[in-house]
Structure formats: C-alpha cells, structure tokens
C-alpha cells in the first residue's frame, strides 16, 4: 500500500524460492533516478523476548547472523548467475532486512541508526539497527573469517520494535484510507475485504503485486468493486434499520392521514414540521411497511446513484429521499429520477422529505425538474400522534437539566398533555437519537468552606452605638429613649435566640412560600442561596431553579418604570435570568420553561440583592414580587439588607429571617475549612491550633457588646487571609509560634479595601482594567473614605466633642452623606442604618478605625482633641489604634505595643 501511495514503479512477491532466509517479502522498485533497487525481508514475530549478542553470534536460530550471511550469498549468486533465474539489477542496490516486533538488549542498540529514504516506507514505529565497526567490534570479529562480511553488514538492517500483527492493522488501514479517500464509516469493511484479497493472492496465486496489475489481478480495484456492492446493499437498508431501532410507532389515525396525503401521487414533496426529518420519515416508513422501499439521504444518492437507479428497477418500488444540506449540484440526480418515473411502471413512486428550513435551492430544483408531476404536502406532526409505548420511551431519555443528568420524565409528566403537544419534533428527534440535550444553566457550586447556616425569625428593630452624655436636655431625652430601645432590643434578642433556629438544607425546608432573608452585608445571604440551590438540585431534580441577581437587570427595571408591569414582563425577566436559549431551531428549553412558569409551577425563584437597586427601582421590584406571588411558582426567596426602610410593603405579610452569626464553633470550623482548601499539605492539628488562637484573639480584641467581628462570614474570611503567613511557615519550620495579638488597624485596612473592591466589581460591575474606569474609581475612593470618616466621627463622638475638632467641615460632610445613606444610595454596606441623624456602623471598632486614621493623618491639627479626650476610658480601643498607627514601621515602638 505504501509503495502504491508513494507512486513507486514496483513488483512485490512473497515466499520466493532460492533466496534462503530472505524469502518472506521481496520488493523490486525504481527510485527517482530510475535505478532498480531491491529490498529482501525476513519477518520475525516474537512475544516478549529481547535479542541478545549470543543470539546474533549463534550458528543457527531466528537472529543468527551467520545464517543470514549464507542467505545473502545465495541472493548475490542470483544477481550474478548467467542462467534464466538471473535477477535484474545489482546487489549493490539492495537492502537485506530482518523486520521484527521484538527489542534489543540495551547494549546493542545503535546510537547512529538513521533510516534512509529508501527504507523509510517500511517503518511502523520502532527503530533501525545498522552495524558499524566502531560500535559493534564483537560482531565484526565474529564474522571476520567470512570473506564478504563487510559488504553483508553494510547492506544489512534489523528493524526492531516494529508493530505487531494487531498494530499493523492500523498502519494498513491508514494507507488504505489515504488511497481510497474512505470515510471512517466505510474503513473497517474496506479493510476486511482488502485483507481477504491479499490472503487469497498469498495462498493461491503466483503473480507479482505491482503498480499496474491487470484488472483481473488488481487487488485494490477488486476491493473497491466488492466494497461498493456491499456498501450499496448496506446503504439501501441502513436508514430503515436506524428508524426501526428508534421504535417510533404511530397511531393508526396518523398513518391513515399520511396515506390520504400521498394518495395516488407518483412524486410527492413533503415538508416536515421542523429542521429534522426523522419523525416524518418514521411515519412514512411505517406507512410503507407492506411496500418494498428504501430511504436514502442526498449524499448517499449522489455517491451511489448508478447502483440505486438499477436497484430501483428490480428490487424496490418506492424511493424515499431525505433532504440535507449539500453543496453539490443535484440537477443531474433529479433529471435521472424524472426520466425514471416517466419510463417505469405505475408502482414506482418517489417521496422527497424536506425539512422546514434551509432547503430552498433543493426544493426549487426538484419542483422545476418534476414540474406538474410533483405534489406538495405538509406534515402536521403532533406528539400525541405516537402510541403510548413510544411516548414512554421518549420520556425515559436523559437530558442535562441545570447541569445534572436526569430523565425527561422527571420534568415532563406523562399526563401533561399540554406540555407534550408543545414539544418540538427537532428535540424529540435528537433525544430519540440518544443525544443528551442541555436544558438550563448549571447550578453554581458551593464554596468548599461553607458552614451550615441557621435562620432566625426577624423583628424590625433598630439600634445604634450609644454616645457620650450630652449637656443639652433635649438630647438627654433622646438618649433616654434610646436606652429604653436598647433594653427592649436586648429582651427581644434574648427571646429570639432562645427559640430554636431553622437550619435548612434545601430551599423547600422553610414552610413559607415566600422567604425574606434580611441581614447585614457580608453575612452570607448570597452564599446561603447558592448552597441551598445546589442541595435542592440533588434532592429535587425536577425543580427549575432561577437565580435573579437583580442588579444585573436594571435595563429591564428601567423599562418597567416607563409602563406598568404585567405577567409577561416578569416571565421575560425570569427567562433572561435563566439564560433560556433557542439555538439551531431547538425550542424544547423555551417551551419547557414557559410551561413550568404557567402550568406546573415547578420552579424556585431566588431574587438576590434587592438593596442594590434601592431606592431607584424599589417599586418595580415590588411589582415583580406581586406577580410572582400570583403565579404558580412554589418557592420565592428574596435577600436584602436590614437598612431598606419600608420593604417589603405591609400588604405582603411575609415572614422575614436573618442569619445567625457564626458561633465560636462555626468560626473555628470555617477557618479550618478555608485554610485546608488553600494549604492541603498542612496537618489538621496545626490548622485546629491556629484556628483556636485566632478565635481567642478575636473574642479578646474584636468584640463589642455581644457582636464578635468574625461572627460575620466575610470578616471571618478576612481574618483567615490575614493569618495565612503562619500556615506558610509550617512547610519550612519544625515548630511555629502562634500569634499573640491582632493588628486591628491592618485588619481594617484590608477589610475596607475588600469592601471597596466588592462594591466596584460586583455592585457597579466595573471593568477594573479600563483606564478611564480606574481614574474615576480613584476619585470615588477618596470621596468614599472622606464620607465614611466624617460619619465615623459623628457615630462615636458627642456633639460637644465634635465641636472641639479643628476640622469644622466634618459635621457638614457627615450630614450630607448620611442623607444619601437614609435614601438607600450608599451601597458599600459599611453603614447599616441611620438613627437620629447618627450612623450605625457594622461594628463600633470599624468607626473607631476611621477616626484613628484621620487623627493620625492630621496629627498636628488633632493634638488638642487627643490630649483632652484620648485617655478617657470609652476611647481605649481608639487609643490603641492611634498608638499602632503612629508606631508603624518603628520596631521598638511596635514591640512595646505588642
């Protein structure tokens, strides 16, 4: 095959007499200079044996060089003899090769073995050994008494580690496919046929294989003819077998309708309902069950037209042709069919099945060719046309539903007639062909360090940090009222915490149909929804879960501001959030989604981040929620911050829940899980020890009242990242000294920057690589820090203390900023609320951090205030932060503070 493909002029023989050991295969060919050359091969198939020096030196055996030398001399005599058996050419232009699948011992492998062009086409992997005196002195000494040993060794090769008999099949197939331009589907059949012809030649005939064999002896041509005949017979039955394997059976009424449609027409053009013709073809195949017929596609007709037309005359009556996209000119084929229909008897019929799209040129050519003889019909396909068993087999097909493999029957029930009739034939055709369709976007995975969260029933209670005692009597009354609020708040908090919390594993373990989750930023509301959605997918595979990050759909909300919202608007929002696709004419996903929304209601809708669009689009969100509650959707979860006043409206009467802060146990578990994912090589007890110490330090330095800093997941992540340096030491040190303090200032530096990054990347969806965005962000960041700093002063200082500050603009900046906070226009989440014109920060220490940074930055201007107040007992944390900021990068001072 390789000689043929390389275009050589050659003769090839096997088992040639008079050549000794080199009789297995002999190739005689002309090189590019028209010099006649020969290759003599001895084939040695061995199993798991190595060729050794002793085998090469033995007097006899499979690899005896003396034996092959004797055969070499015999061949030379054939070149030199003057009788009738003389070989053409010269021994000088010959190669003598042992071709084997076995290997050499390491010492014998040649370092200089290079395959030359003249023997390259024999390689099937492996290597070539050519002896030379420099590397193989023992071989040359062993054969030195033989007069022509140098000539022999110069022309002698051992091809070792070559393909064995099984691997050789692949090489032959490759050459065969290259020669005949075979599609993969026809390769195995062609190969088996070719091999049988080669075996027959080898066992029974005495002619050479050559580049120009007569037709009688041309194995390749005989292979092509034989395969073509076999393939045509196979092609004529192929599509019918495929259709039978699908087990599509129609009701008698559907078959009767098809029979009436085709009637007595000789040529019929039938348009299928969708892009796929499979279901219409199956119906016609069932209708023609008592008639001899074949079903082909256009490519098969083009490739085997002559054979098909001959078979149509004698072997079958009805030719069914399925359309497909083809760049080839079909006019000649349609002309042949037209002529045949004119000349044949009345039983012969032609049915062309066209998909509904993409066949304009084909159908136009067909109509023009067959003219008035062609009848056009349309197949009105419905799912209810098929029998019950076929419906059930279809519903047992598997699809990928939001990333999980399930049966279609888990989504569509057999009694949902409306949904079944809405299914498109393209989707059904693909499913029956065992193509696993992807429906819905996969559910996002839960983070590895997730901790199960407890939901607590909420009450609308507001509290702020108490301030210094005021000299103004009116303000004293306000403070008294606040203290009463504090007492009431503490009592209700105690009552709430004594009630058992709810720790759901799925979205359906909370009894309410609508669940509101309200809490501070960073408490893990979004992460909770992600986890519950993931677990719900496992336990309720039929449930369509739609996650709506409402801040991503402000375009839709803005359109709703211009008009009143209706149910279609809500469904369009859900459709866009679910990323429902309609591609390649496949409408199954969209129809399933619409049907789920309007009929089964087998859906959970998660609306996240309502506070991000407040207050500009709050009314539109309320309208959407109104319609969602009127629809059949089974569960609706909504998350937003505590600071959203008047949301949801009183009309809804929904239960609201907040997330219980991390307990001390939760904090340790979270830290260990977080570090384990990033440092899998660190031992568990090391992680446990560090987690214990970090929690202890947090309780000591970062607790205000009953609020611990790392009770909030986002802040727990921050602290975990801060102490990663200790884990890195475990890989290089035998023992690691655990931390003995928390640098609160450094902690808040990181925290404020992280909150700013979250605000820009997730809330504003800014492209942080854009130059203009970066410039704008820098200006916004300065304003961001200034506003929070002014608010922090107002949060922890009394009016009297504020008046002592040198910077008289602080009160004005804070007042303007807090008005925006009250309107819901401040989205970073560091301030939770504004009560009596004073801000409520996430944590008192956070407000103290901003104040400490400003005092140190403007040290000279702040000196009087710090001298008068910083030593007071209520400012112990603030004083500690000021000390640490002033001691920064001063090792002795830092050591004293620590």
What does this structure look like?
The chain has 6 domains: 180 residues, no CATH class; 134 residues, Rossmann fold; 51 residues, no CATH class; 205 residues, Rossmann fold (3-Layer(aba) Sandwich); 79 residues, no CATH class; 149 residues, no CATH class. The two termini are 84 Å apart. About 2% of the residues have low confidence. Helix 24 links the parallel strand 21 and strand 22. Helix 8 crosses helix 9. It is of the alpha/beta class and 898 residues long. Helix content is 48%, strand content 14%. A 7-stranded mixed β-sheet has the order 7-8-5-3-2-1-9. Strands 18-23-19-22-21-20 form a 6-stranded mixed β-sheet, sandwiched between helices. It has a 5-stranded parallel β-sheet with strand order 11-12-13-10-14, with helices on both faces.
User: What coarse outline follows from CA principal-axis ratios?
Assistant: flat
Approximately how much helix is present in the residues?
Answer: 40-55%
Low-confidence stretches: 460-471, 494-498
Average pLDDT number: 83
- N-to-C CA distance: 84 Å
Second-tier CATH architecture of the largest domain = 3-Layer(aba) Sandwich
Q: Approximately what portion of the residues adopt beta-strand conformation?
A: 5-15%
- The number of helices is 36
The main sheet orders its strands as 7-8-5-3-2-1-9
**How many distinct folded domains?**
6
Computed Rg: 43 Å
CATH class of the largest domain: Alpha Beta
Main beta-sheet strand count, sense and barrel state: 7 strands, mixed
In short:
By secondary structure, the chain is α/β, with parallel strands linked by helices. It is built from 36 helices and 27 strands.
């Amino acid at each position: 095959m390789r000689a043929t493909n390389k275009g050589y002029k050659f003769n090839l023989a096997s088992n040639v007499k008079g050549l000794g050991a080199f009789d297995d295969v002999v190739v005689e060919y002309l090189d590019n200079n028209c010099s006649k050359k020969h290759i003599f091969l001895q084939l040695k198939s061995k199993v798991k044996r190595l060729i050794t020096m002793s085998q090469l030196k033995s007097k006899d055996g499979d690899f005896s060089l003396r034996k092959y030398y004797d055969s070499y001399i015999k061949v030379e005599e054939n070149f030199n003899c003057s009788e009738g058996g003389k070989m053409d050419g010269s021994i000088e232009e010959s190669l003598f090769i042992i071709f084997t699948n076995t290997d050499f011992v390491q010492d014998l492998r040649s370092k200089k073995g290079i395959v030359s062009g003249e023997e390259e086409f024999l390689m099937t992997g492996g290597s070539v050994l050519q002896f030379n005196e420099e590397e193989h002195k023992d071989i040359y000494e062993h054969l030195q008494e033989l007069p022509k040993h140098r000539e022999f060794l110069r022309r002698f090769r051992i091809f070792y580690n070559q393909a064995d008999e099984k691997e050789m099949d692949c090489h032959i197939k490759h050459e065969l496919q290259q020669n005949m331009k075979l599609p993969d589907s026809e390769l195995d059949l062609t190969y088996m046929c070719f091999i049988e012809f080669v075996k027959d030649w080898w066992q029974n005939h005495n002619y050479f294989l050559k580049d120009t064999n007569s037709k009688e002896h041309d194995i390749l041509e005989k292979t092509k003819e034989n395969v073509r005949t076999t393939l045509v017979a196979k092609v004529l039955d192929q599509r019918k077998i495929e259709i039978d394997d699908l087990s599509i059976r129609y009701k008698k009424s559907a078959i009767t309708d098809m029979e009436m449609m085709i009637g007595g027409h000789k040529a019929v053009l039938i348009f299928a309902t969708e892009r796929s013709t499979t279901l219409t073809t199956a119906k016609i195949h069932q209708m023609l069950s008592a008639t001899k017929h074949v079903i082909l596609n256009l490519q098969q007709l083009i490739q085997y037209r002559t054979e098909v037309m001959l078979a149509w005359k004698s072997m079958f009556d009805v030719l069914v042709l399925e359309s497909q996209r083809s760049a080839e000119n079909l006019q000649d084929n349609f002309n042949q069919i037209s002529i045949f229909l004119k000349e044949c008897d009345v039983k012969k019929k032609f049915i062309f099945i066209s998909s509904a799209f993409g066949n304009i040129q084909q159908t136009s050519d067909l109509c023009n060719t067959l003219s008035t003889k062609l009848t056009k019909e349309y197949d009105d396909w419905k799912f209810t046309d098929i029998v019950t068993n076929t419906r059930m087999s279809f519903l047992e097909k598997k699809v990928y539903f939001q990333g999980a493999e399930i049966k279609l029957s888990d989504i569509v029930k057999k009694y949902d007639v409306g949904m079944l009739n809405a299914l498109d034939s393209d989707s059904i055709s693909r499913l029956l062909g065992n193509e696993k369709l992807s429906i819905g976007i996969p559910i996002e995975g839960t983070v590895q360090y997730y901790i199960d969260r407890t939901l607590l029933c909420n009450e609308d209670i507001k509290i702020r940090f108490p301030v210094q005692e005021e000299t103004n009597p009116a303000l004293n009354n306000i403070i008294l009222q606040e203290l009463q609020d504090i007492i009431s708040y503490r009592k209700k908090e105690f009552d709430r915490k004594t009630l058992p919390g709810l720790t759901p594993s799925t979205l359906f373990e909370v009894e309410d149909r609508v669940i509101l989750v309200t809490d501070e930023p960073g408490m893990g509301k979004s992460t909770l929804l992600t986890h519950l959605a993931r677990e719900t997918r496992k336990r309720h595979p039929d449930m369509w879960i739609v996650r709506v990050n409402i801040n991503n759909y402000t375009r839709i909300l803005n359109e709703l501001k211009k008009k009143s919202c209706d149910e279609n608007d809500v469904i369009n929002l859900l459709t866009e959030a679910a990323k429902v696709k309609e591609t390649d004419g496949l409408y199954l996903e969209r129809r399933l989604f619409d049907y789920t929304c309007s009929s089964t209601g087998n859906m959970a809708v998660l609306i996240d981040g309502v506070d991000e669009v407040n207050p500009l689009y709050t009314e539109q969100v309320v309208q959407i929620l109104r319609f969602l509650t009127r629809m059949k959707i089974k569960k609706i979860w909504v998350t937003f911050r505590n600071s959203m006043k008047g949301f949801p409206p009183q009309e809804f009467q929904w239960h609201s829940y907040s997330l219980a802060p991390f307990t001390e146990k939760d904090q340790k578990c979270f830290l260990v899980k977080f570090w384990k994912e990033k440092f899998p090589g660190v031992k568990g007890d090391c992680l446990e020890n560090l987690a214990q110490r970090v929690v202890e330090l947090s309780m000591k330095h970062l607790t205000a009242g009953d609020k611990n800093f790392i009770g909030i997941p986002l802040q727990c992540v921050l602290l975990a990242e801060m102490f990663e340096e200790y884990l890195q030491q475990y890989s290089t040190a035998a023992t690691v000294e655990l931390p003995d303090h928390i640098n609160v200032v450094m902690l808040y530096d990181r925290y404020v920057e992280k909150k700013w990054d979250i605000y820009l990347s997730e809330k504003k969806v800014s492209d942080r690589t854009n130059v203009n965005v970066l410039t704008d962000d820098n200006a916004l960041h300065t304003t961001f820090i200034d506003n929070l700093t002014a608010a922090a002063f107002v949060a922890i200082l009394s009016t009297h203390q504020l008046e002592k500050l040198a910077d008289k603009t602080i009160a004005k900046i804070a007042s303007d900023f807090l008005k925006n906070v009250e309107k819901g226009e401040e989205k970073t989440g560091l301030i939770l609320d504004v009560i009596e014109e004073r801000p409520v920060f996430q944590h008192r220490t956070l407000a103290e951090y901003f104040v400490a940074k400003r005092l140190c930055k403007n040290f000279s201007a702040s000196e009087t205030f710090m001298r008068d107040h910083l030593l007071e007992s209520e400012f112990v944390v603030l004083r500690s932060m000021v000390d640490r900021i002033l001691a920064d990068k001063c090792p002795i001072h830092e050591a004293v503070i620590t």
